[in-house]
């Protein structure tokens, strides 16, 4: 019997429901992300890269919690690296373009905060097939997490219309008992 793959909408509905009680939640949920070209995330030399799964590096799961301080209908989330205190953030580069950076921050601290923290927030936009999604920067509307069409390149931000890949699979990884 084949298991039914959950949609992005189902995963997010559960995430937002489970994280209603800020005192009860101590750990973020872990998600596996990979782009439409089957490139997964890896963390190498302080850089988040997208590469085929057969890479020699261990796959980097993403730590995810909801951001309750922004409109929940946009499904705002914080994302970081699992097992580390590193968070994804969108900042303006020296050229004035938004860029994706990784900062030494714990997303659980953001989750308990009452600030909007838009620089660290992403809106999850579900694709029409409900199995894939885009991650739009809350701080820079119209800019999305993206990967290069080439393997082993850094994960970044882009506007639609270019050659970068913005469509992702997003799947919760079953938690293991501690």
From TrEMBL:
Q: Which key words tag this protein in UniProt?
A: Disulfide bond, Glycoprotein, Secreted, Signal
* Pfam families membership: IL1
- Name the SUPFAM superfamilies for this protein: Cytokine
Annotated GO MF terms: cytokine activity; interleukin-1 receptor binding
Q: Which SMART domains match?
A: IL1
Q: Which GO terms describe its biological process?
A: cellular response to lipopolysaccharide; cytokine-mediated signaling pathway; inflammatory response to antigenic stimulus; positive regulation of gene expression
By its UniProt entry, which Gene3D superfamilies does this protein fall under? 2.80.10.50
The compartments listed are: Secreted
The source's superkingdom equals Eukaryota
Gene Ontology CC entries for this record? extracellular space
Q: What is its main location?
A: secreted
Family assignment?
Belongs to the IL-1 family.
Q: What does this protein do?
A: Anti-inflammatory antagonist of interleukin-1 family of proinflammatory cytokines such as interleukin-1beta/IL1B and interleukin-1alpha/IL1A. Protects from immune dysregulation and uncontrolled systemic inflammation triggered by IL1 for a range of innate stimulatory agents such as pathogens.
What name does this protein carry? Interleukin-1
The protein's gene is named LOC113414467
């Amino acid at each position: 019997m084949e298991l039914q793959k959950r949609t992005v909408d189902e995963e997010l509905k559960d995430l937002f429901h489970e994280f209603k009680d800020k005192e009860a939640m101590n750990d973020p949920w872990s998600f596996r992300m990979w782009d439409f070209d089957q490139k997964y995330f890896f963390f190498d030399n302080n850089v988040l890269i997208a590469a085929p799964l057969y890479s020699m590096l261990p796959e980097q799961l993403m730590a995810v919690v909801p951001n309750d301080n922004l409109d929940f209908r946009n499904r705002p989330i914080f994302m970081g690296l699992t097992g580390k205190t590193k968070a994804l953030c969108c900042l303006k580069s020296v050229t004035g373009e938004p860029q994706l950076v990784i900062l030494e921050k714990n997303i659980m601290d953001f989750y308990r905060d009452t600030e909007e923290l838009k620089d660290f927030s992403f809106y999850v936009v579900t694709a029409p097939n409900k199995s894939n999604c885009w991650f739009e920067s809350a701080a820079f509307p119209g800019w999305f997490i993206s990967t290069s069409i080439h393997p082993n390149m850094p994960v970044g931000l882009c506007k639609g219309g270019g050659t970068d890949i913005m469509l992702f699979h997003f799947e919760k990884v079953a938690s293991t008992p501690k």
